[in-house]
Specification:
The protein has 18 helices and 31 strands. It is an alpha+beta fold. The strands form 7 sheets. Strands 1, 2, 3, 4, 5, 6, 7, 8, 9, 10, 11, 12, 13 and 14 form a 14-stranded antiparallel beta sheet that branches. The radius of gyration is 27 Å and the shape is globular. The chain starts with a helix and ends with a strand.
């Protein structure tokens, strides 16, 4: 049946018959062009991206390439820093946290310019940047535009703009091919008349050559290395095709006309991949030769659907809601999420779509999605569009395993492996320690040093990154992979084991200096500080890392002496949770007064998610403390913070509260007048998450949270529907993954499982369904 639908879709598109988006449950659609970037529709194949605004007469399509990074490799480590670590630790032991923080800022931060405080485009750290804007000026047969619709079909990774210009029906189709690294724009009309379009490329800086060709445009440029020179070279190449094609060159504009339909093909690449970008771009465009529009589209859809169609979700909402423009549905969902469960389905599959579209794991040097995934519209992207490692890059990958996109973890894993190498030098510089460490941010150049300020830049991330290495193994059960990453797990553990110090008050061995990411506290003397010994998140991460390494050693039968020694040291580090007098999880070893009780980071609940220390089944007292912690933290926060809270409440098995946070995540970050300034966190009309500004981690966190409401497998069994909201009493899902490399299909009615199929290794698997533990026989 699915193949019949696909062929129908292909035929309709090739005949330029518009498939009304209102009838497609996996479609974002709108009845007017985008006025600003946060309304445009994202397309991407993991390497190149396009975001068309759908303007009928003058269209702008923002273009991206995932490796468009300024900056260059550097060694920003302060090799004198380790000489000061004893003094910093002594001040912390004496309770002089503010003085310790001052010394950290003076001696224990990056020696270089770091992130440039968000101005990385001009320093070696660099910045992820927009490739440029493709501008299309159309000459239409009539200025009267009617029947306007634009859409993004998640089922085919295709955008469309459809309208009538007088008596001419226009249908524009856009996609970034998953079969080859080419973006496609088909300008179709229902008449065999000549159509004309002016085409130009615009970028504000760093263009070395802009050349109009006989059938296209060539752009070459070089990005600054942050040291006064140039580093990465980039190329964008465009080609036009059409019947009776005529091309005129006018200043910077290529004026193209053809009889009937007209096609634009474009590609982009950089020298990051180790080859000449011009040669690579020419080869990609040459590959278009001899392929019909129908063939190209069919191959694109087939390659994409082989991945996307692994998971199907149906929450059986009211089909009439799909006839409402997406921006209006967002507003309606915020008012009452129970009336449109299908928007949750759309949001979930949109998250999977963004994962698939913002990374290309088949590419040998594939990059993971950054703070904006693949999509940016600025030279100086917010926060450099980098890889924040104190939650954001991690959140980008929280859903890939459960959502049956395991290979989309690999680009992030490869980045971790690369930064582990540079992190060996950082471990030496700051602690004179073995192993490796990386702090709260990195880039494509392997940056591993602390940031510019202690309050946010001195939290170590290496242990948290190892959570991803280990989770990929837990879901895949791939022993060959485990052997591959074992040395990296061990190196991270060696660093922590060497650098832990004994807290004089408790006797526990803890990290020092460190912070609870980006948060601060008030000391007894009234001063505010961030730097501490042993914040709760570190204690949880170190324990999780040690336990994972001990398990890996046992599975692989390595019998490493160092790993064996960690078994005893698990008794010497703090427990995952210490409950305060208020009944909440303590964020620090001491029960400090919080300066911001509703802080966006909830780092001390790392043990609830992504780790598995806190559970209503195994540690009910800790689970209750986590509930009280979340009650004080509140349901709001930045976009990604709300995504994390969905996961928290899902792990606490409170589906209705998880749905409430999803409602908060989908709060319109716009007004009816399409005003975006000062509106706050939530969701933009194109379903991008508003931090604000746009950060993609909230999308990925939200999608992961929806999956976590339906299935969990972190406690040694597969828990089905652990946090099902009452509003989702009927549904079905196919293709979700559970740890142990199991694939789960299930249907439910009145909140109870009625059909279940689990695929994986033959034998018994423990499950929890309909309120009871059972053994399921996998055949």
């Amino acid at each position: 049946m699915r193949n019949r639908i696909l062929m129908l879709c292909v035929v309709c598109i090739c005949q330029t018959t518009f498939l009304f988006a209102q009838q497609n449950p996996l479609s974002l659609w709108y009845n007017k062009p985008a006025q600003i970037w946060e309304e445009t529709l994202p397309l991407g194949n993991g390497l190149i991206g396009m975001m068309p605004d759908g303007n009928a007469t003058r269209e702008k399509i923002v273009l991206n390439e995932i490796s468009m990074w300024s900056g260059s490799p550097e060694d920003p480590n302060n090799y004198e820093a380790h000489k000061n670590v004893d003094a910093i630790q002594a001040l912390l032991k004496a309770g002089k946290n503010d003085e310790a923080e001052k010394l950290v800022n003076e001696t224990f931060v990056t020696k270089g310019k770091g992130s440039g405080f968000g101005n990385g485009a001009n320093v070696p750290f660099g910045c992820y940047q927009v490739l440029g804007d493709l501008l299309l000026q159309y000459q239409l047969p009539s200025s009267s535009i009617t029947d306007y619709t634009r859409s993004l079909d998640l089922a085919t990774a295709t955008a469309q703009t459809s309208f009538r210009a007088g008596t001419t029906k226009i249908n524009r189709i856009y996609y970034t091919s998953f079969d080859r690294n080419v973006g496609v724009i088909q300008l179709n009309q229902n008449k065999d008349a000549r159509q004309t379009v002016g085409i130009s490329f615009e970028r504000k800086e760093n263009i070395d050559q802009y050349r109009l060709l006989d059938d296209g445009i060539l752009v070459e440029g070089s990005l600054p290395d942050g040291k006064g020179g140039k580093n990465l070279r980039f190329v964008a190449l465009l080609k036009v095709q059409g019947k009776n094609l005529r091309v005129d060159k006018k200043d910077q504009v290529l004026e193209v006309s053809a009889t009937g339909n007209l096609s634009i093909y474009l590609t982009a690449t950089t020298s990051y991949y180790g080859s000449d970008p011009l040669t690579t771009a020419k080869a990609a465009i040459a590959g278009v030769q001899g392929s019909s529009s129908a063939q190209m589209f069919r191959k694109h859809v087939s390659a994409y659907q082989n991945i996307f169609n692994r998971v199907e979700l149906n929450l059986f909402g009211n089909p009439a809601n799909t006839g409402i423009p997406t921006n209006e549905r967002i507003a309606n969902f915020y008012k009452n999420p129970t009336q449109d469960p299908d928007l949750a389905t759309l949001y979930y599959q949109y998250g999977r779509y963004l994962n698939i579209s913002s990374s290309a794991p088949k590419n040998a040097k594939a990059l993971p999605p950054n703070l904006q995934g693949l999509w940016a519209n600025q030279i100086q992207t917010p926060w450099n569009g980098d890889y924040h490692l104190n939650i954001n890059a991690q959140m980008n990958h929280w859903g890939v395993e459960v959502n049956n996109l395991s290979e989309y973890h690999r680009p992030f894993i490869e980045l971790i492996k690369r930064v582990a190498k540079t992190g060996e030098q950082t471990a030496k510089a700051y602690y004179n320690a073995p192993g490796w460490v990386v702090y709260m941010m990195t880039n494509i150049w392997g940056y591993s040093a602390p940031g510019e300020q202690a309050s946010w830049g001195s939290s170590t991330a290496s242990g948290w990154l190892c959570n991803h290495l280990w989770e990929h193994y837990l879901f895949t059960a791939d022993r060959g992979y485990l052997k591959e990453i074992y040395p990296i797990l061990k190196g991270a553990a060696e660093f922590y084991d060497h650098t832990l110090v004994q807290d004089p008050k408790t006797g526990w061995w803890v990290t020092s200096p460190s912070v609870s990411p980006e948060n601060s506290f008030r000391m007894s003397n009234g001063k505010v500080a961030s730097v501490v010994m042993g914040p709760t998140i570190d204690n949880q991460i170190v324990r999780e890392l040690y336990q994972a390494l001990i398990q890996a050693d046992s599975i692989l039968a390595v019998r490493d002496r160092f790993v064996a020694s960690l078994k005893g040291k698990l008794k010497e580090i703090p427990p995952p949770v210490v409950v305060s007098k208020s009944g909440r999880v303590m964020e620090w070893l001491e029960d400090y007064q919080e300066t911001d009780p509703q802080h966006r980071h909830v780092s001390h609940l790392y043990g609830l998610y992504p780790a598995a220390f806190i559970s209503p089944q195994t540690t009910p007292d800790w689970a209750e403390a986590a509930r009280k912690t979340l009650a004080v933290r509140g349901d709001e926060g930045t976009g990604w913070s709300r995504g994390w809270k969905i996961l928290f409440w899902a792990r606490l098995q409170d589906g209705d509260h998880a749905l409430e946070i999803l409602r908060q995540l989908l709060k319109p970050a716009f007004t009816s007048e399409t005003t975006y300034q000062g509106v706050g966190a939530g969701t933009y009309p194109n379903l991008f998450c508003a931090h604000p500004p746009f950060q993609i981690d909230g999308n990925f966190g939200g999608a992961a949270g929806i999956a976590e409401m339906l299935i969990q497998s972190h406690n040694g069994y597969i828990h089905l529907l652990p946090a099902l909201p009452k509003a989702w009493s009927k549904g079905q899902v196919k293709g979700l993954k559970a740890r142990g490399n199991y694939t789960v299909d299930m249907s439910w009615e009145n909140g109870k499982i009625v059909r279940l199929k689990i695929k994986g290794e033959k034998g018994n698997v423990r499950i929890f369904e309909n309120g009871a533990y059972k053994d399921y026989q996998v055949r």
